[in-house]
Amino acid sequence: MKKTSLGMVAVLLFVLVWTFFAWRVGNRTLLPYPTDVLDALGRLLTTGQTYRILASSFYRLFSAIVIATLLGVGVGLLAGVLPDVDAFLKPLVTSLRTVPVASVIVVILILYGSRTSLYIITFLMLFPLLYEATRQGVLNIDPSLKEAYTMETQRVWLGAFKFYLPLTLPFIKTGLLQSLGLGFKVLVMAEFIAQSPVSIGRALYISRISLAYDDVFAWTIIIIALVLTLEILVQKLKQS
Known about the structure:
Elements: H1 2-25, H2 34-45, H3 48-81, H4 83-98, H5 101-139, H6 143-152, H7 156-194, H8 200-209, H9 213-239
Helix pairs in contact: 2-9, 3-4, 3-5, 3-7, 4-5, 5-7, 7-8, 7-9, 8-9
């Protein structure tokens, strides 16, 4: 209850500061008041095109997450069991985790165009997280359990999915929790740069060049709300 009250106070303080600066600027086009943004938000939420845009972006996001999860978990299990696989993939995974997101977006857009690149970019940003989470999960399994299972079977693939996968699920769930927020932000950035049709990124771009900053703020609120909702859902999955 106390945390909720403190959160409400923080939000109220933020709105007050925002209102003050909007008053100081004195130009609703450059810096709209919170009430202007709420009006824009209400207009967006009552427009069918908004939900088509959200559905299109979510389709891209979840498609990339499914592929990244399947490959990241599968390869991560093998890397945890077989050190040679980990050594082979380490340079690639490290590069993907350290390279600037903007650089990845530009390079992939040049190579694959605006449509396919959105899936590839999001996948490349999420794969290292899920791979590393799964690999760490395998490495954190009690060595005595590993020895006992190794004595029963020598089949790597069978062991990876029958024994290691269930024991690494908490780590995989954590990786998914991190991936959803990151994946959504990366996707929107890629859509913005690529000017993908029917996308949140393009909606933000159109609002910016039209000087409709109330819509920019409104879309930002929608993005934040969606990311928080996704993280809450995955957090509940993690606790289950």
